[in-house]
Amino acid sequence: ALLALLVAGPALAQEVVLKLASVAPDGTPWAKALVQYKAKVGELSKGRIKMKLFIGGALGDENETVTACKRGRVQAVAVSAGAMATLVPELHVLEMPYLFKTYADADKALDAPATMAVVQKLLADRGFVLLFWSENGFRSFGTKTGFIKKPSDLKGKKMRTQEAPTHIMMYREFGASPVPIPVTEVLTSLQTGVVEGFDNTPLFSFASSWQTAVKFYSVTEHIYQPALIAVKKDWWDGIGAADQKILMDARGDIQAKLRKTLRTMGPLLLKNFEAAGVAVYRLTDAEKAAFYPAAEKARNAFLSTAPDATKAFYKTITSVR
Fold first, then answer.
1. 3-state percent breakdown (helix, strand, coil) of the chain, nearest 5
2. Residue 98: left (phi > 0), alpha (psi -120 to 50), or beta?
3. pLDDT (tens digit, 9 = 90+) per residue, 190-227?
């Protein structure tokens, strides 16, 4: 029997299947970056690691996608930090209002070795491994009636909010009435009057057609929303070091290129808003500063009841910001 095994030679390497889900609409930079990553993984593994992409919310909204990964329906997700925070609550810190005021601030904080070490530990404790960062970008307000130039302009407005405590507390401090609604139901809610507005990036707003249901877009840039590509840890641990290296090496410069693409597209998309009949107002730095006191109250309100691990992560972020 041993002789037969030696004659036959080594067994063929086992095929590995990696299913990845995201709500990123088809054709967006996010989706294209995932396609590029898939191609690179296939190239480096010589076709042995097969990625299957489920994009555009094919498996539900972001929270449902994260849960699907946790339960093993898929092995990886590409989601906002806010969605991952449903299982890794410390990540809510990253979506505090006006925590980051510029892209440079965000990059410095997220890419710092101290941040990466803490994030990997937080994810690992909940069953995930971080592959690389992406971003949704800076969120601003889209509304049906009038620009949002100061917090009082939001007073009493029913605004769609992401289902995250930092977002909800922000709206309350700004005087609005937050209504948590999944991504997949926002457009209908805007069209039927369930809510009067929303906040999101120009790219996601346009890709999801939310701009068709509002008349005004105010560039407040009040929340920088990171995103991440993460894999299920027990699946990761089971594929072995060689395949782990392939998945890490396949990242290449995708993160840097994606950031650059998204940031270049933002101003162009604002022009598309205007061409589509949505009035755009770009707040001055002084006008943005008028939101800072309420934003600070929202951050403090969140931290006041947060566990020690969340407070520690906040200290890490602010120390390297």
1. 50, 20, 25
2. left
3. 999 999 999 999 988 988 899 999 999 999 999 999 99
pLDDT at 244: 97
Distance, in Å, from the CA atom of 40 to the CA atom of 34, rounded to the nearest integer, reads: 10
Eight-state DSSP code of residue 281? E
Asked if 77 and 57 touch (Cβ cutoff 8 Å), the reply is no
Higher pLDDT, 75 or 24: 75
In angstroms, how far is the first alpha carbon of the chain from the final one? 62
Beta bridge partners of 180: 161
Q: Enter the pTM of the model.
A: 0.89
Of 229, 225, 233, 97, nearest to 168 by C-alpha is 97
Contacts of residue 6, defined as CB under 8 A and 6 or more positions apart, other chains included, come to none
What contacts 24+ positions apart, CB below 8 Å, involve 258-264? 258/29, 258/30, 258/33, 258/134, 258/135, 259/103, 259/107, 259/134, 259/135, 261/29, 262/29, 262/135, 262/137, 262/203, 263/103, 263/137
Residue in this structure with the two tokens 């072995």, named with its chain if needed: 240
